[in-house]
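User: Round two. Same drill as before: sequence, then structure, for each protein.

Assistant: Same drill it is. First protein:
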Amino acid sequence: MSQLSEVAANPYAAELAAAKKAVALAARLCQRVQQGILQSDVQSKADRTPVTVADYGSQVLVSLVLKKELPSHSFSMVAEEDSKDLRKDGAQEVLEHITSLVNETIANGGSYNMSLSKEDVLAAIDGGKSEGGPSGQHWILDPIDGTKGFIRGDQYAVALGLLDEGKVVLGVLGCPNLPLKSTNKHNGGSSRGQVGSLFFATIGCGAEVEALEGSEPQKISVCSINNPVDASFFESFEASHSKRDLTSSIAEKLGVQAPPVRMDSQAKYGALARGDGAIFLRIPHKGYIETVWDHAVGSIVVTAGGMVKDASGNDLDFSKGRYLNRDRGIIATNKYLMPVVLKAVQEAMKEEQ
């Protein structure tokens, strides 16, 4: 396909190419830090430094690549981190570590011939201070989604989406530890083989997956299971992130037989989008407010073929700034299961009250 016809088919082709490049480079930095964590004994210390380094480093690289690849765009990013803590006394060593890690990742990536100073790094981190909102274009970034999974050597994701006039129009989800082939036994998939998946979707163009290192993209789709008895569902690995007693009562109402698949981060959305499971439920504890960067990317990857709703059956609204202003609970599944799952969720919530 020529570049002209590609742009005609996908009006966000340039943004998508830049976002894929940004996420792949950030994921490379994260992989390196995660290997370091697993070789040392960070888990036994209350030391969050490696995560901090990877979080900030990932945000710096994404910010840098987007600005380099899309120089004519006005840049606005809603992201999790800012540089406040790194500007404090005593943070110099961490800042130096981040700067050298970022520069090494850029050098090894081979696309850019440049070196960042510590000031450049701080400025790039603060590129994520935007509030987003209903007008204009804003990037939405979670530089490391699934921090605890990251520390354990498990699933995490680099999640980058684009908001245009209040709607998520594009999403790229880098999952360095998720096998490229389906993890679902029913799909004939196994967890052996290549690891590292890059999911991406653009509004109106469906969802695809390729190897994090680059490969021929494959079209993906949510499963077409229509009987909840045959469905398996995803939930957060960390019990503190979701009400498990409520989820199990919902599963019981639906007659779901399979045990829940517990996974950290928006990698769940990627796995769901290619049919590794049928339902993702997230019912947070009372008072917890979801952020836009925790769901924007995952939701567009799934809605390319499936549905994502809140517990009242409404679409998620990402136009309200940094937080999701919505009913408690998020449900992602296919169009066949959504009505029955929604009904079970609402009944279980009513009973709980």
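Second protein:
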Amino acid sequence: MANKLITQLGLPKWIANIFTARNIITAKDALSLTEFELMELLDVGLADVSRAVAHISEVVCPPCQTRVRNESLAGHLPTRLKGLDEALSGGIPFGVLTELVGPAGIGKTQFCLKLSLLASLPANCGGLDGHVIFIDVESKFSSRRLIEIGVKSFPEIFHKKGMAQEMAGRILILRPTSLSEFTESLHQIKVSLLQQQVKLLIIDSMAALVLRENEGGYSGQQAFGWHVSFIKSLAEFSRIPVVVTNQVRSQIGDEAHKYSFQAQNHLEKKADPATYDSHLVAALGINWAHAVTIRLVLEAKSGQRFIKLAKSPISPPLAFPFSITSSGIVLLSDDGMELKGPEINRIHCQGQNAFLNFHGERLQ
């Protein structure tokens, strides 16, 4: 609530405009200053400042209420992957960052499409009955594939006239081509979260956007630091699931032993697909790795795909074998295999053939 926009707090328009003009954008910005500091900065009398601060405090600090044990979905978006949902105590958690990391074609976007569908489904069908904002950096979002997953997974819903169009219409697709456009999109999203029933935010893929802008540059690192903080605050402020996909790069030496979630800012090195069986690590850097609460790794090893729950505050590291079908990602076993040591952080990739779906098409 502290990150709620000043313009959304119900203040008189004249003083809200003064706050904004002085770059005091959120409740947190206002409450971090004393009343006398605000008087000097805003050039407004003490009585008006005091009334404004009291109003802001009342809005963002509501009276303490006892939590209801059975609140909406217990604060999770179920993935409908039984073993994974059990490990996560219900699914993708609200209010934190969840990361999907893996090589190109392994199924990250497929996972995101299914989550988008589940968030937009009616509540009586187990969905969140809301809208989804999908930031599609690499133009991988496919309405056709989304509807295919819906028809195969929920035929009783999608065979109703107009339902497929309605579900697809609940998903807003944004395609920023630069970091500056992405920054503008984030500000617009913050307003949308207040005005619309947005129940899920997906960014696919964050790494592609950052690396496209300034691969390995220091200025890019500084700018990205702001984005990490802002996206994390969006999750906390909105109390919705925020899912971000990440790419991989080649591991250098024994760095997986040095940092639990270490990664530098450049893409993986290319290798001969016929012999590629490399240990990879996540891109985007150590600060990003620490910002995410849940890390799900998608990898291919010994001819089999796996989802690894590599980082979670409530579960040991687990690996679940999976395949991709017409209805999306399906676990082959609900019993996760516990992982230990360097295998928790290594990401395996075994050739492009590992990333063909049941149609023989390349997946993302």
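The longest helix spans residues 218-238.

User: Perfect.
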